[in-house]
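As a warm-up, study this chain.
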Amino acid sequence: MAITRIHHLNCGTMCPAAMLVGGGGWGERGTLVCHCLLLETDHGLVLVDSGFGTDDVTNPERINRMLRTLGRPRFDLAETAIEQVRALGFAPEDVRHIVVTHLDIDHAGGLPDFPWATVHIHHAERSAALLRQSFGERQRYVPAHFAHGPRWRTYRESGDDWFGFAAVRELEGLAGDVALVPLLGHSRGHAGIAVDTGDGWLLHAGDALFHDAELSDPRQCPAGLRLFQEMVQFDRKARLANADRLRTLHAERAGEVTIFCAHDPTQLARAQS
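Now compare it with the structure written out below.
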């Protein structure tokens, strides 16, 4: 499989209080995005994360109250992955594979829009989303996102070395151009998704980080985002350790690997420019 073009998409805008995401007061609104990738390949399209889906936009009350109240999602149909695929001139059926960092509300909402696609996921994340054993997992996963019976392809923490990380390099049907990089902590089976651009690697770090400044100094992350990470984390020790490893990778290999997270609008704007 050869990747011929990469599109950086925003598949869901959230407008929390500006104070929570850095700058401004409670009366002002900040911006968070759902940064997804659409990969054009010689074997069809590959979506990395899926943001909010069409059913989330038309039926937002199924999204938990905390996210609706604090995150203030815009729920814009034009921002859904399926509508952006159409806007780019493709048919939805051209999306053959979806590779997800994790299955939180704002990352998995688009899965039902592509029921024929193979969904590549860390095995622990799929189990967590389907079983919803803890209170936190009952809040973060929406059963309707998986009710269509996704064509799951799960992977465990074994594989090749990728810049010092254990990674699954051979995702079924995707050759070695896309790799699943376990970054546990935010959720039970959270992973980063590495994409070989031909000139280096992109690493979609999902929610392992929340702010561009975290790549250099975690203290520069706005207090509201730091608090949110603490509130929703599954394993604090693992989350902090993986964030440190990402900072080391950024410091030592920035010319080879471009790291970005799911919700920082500055990183998305930079990638789209």
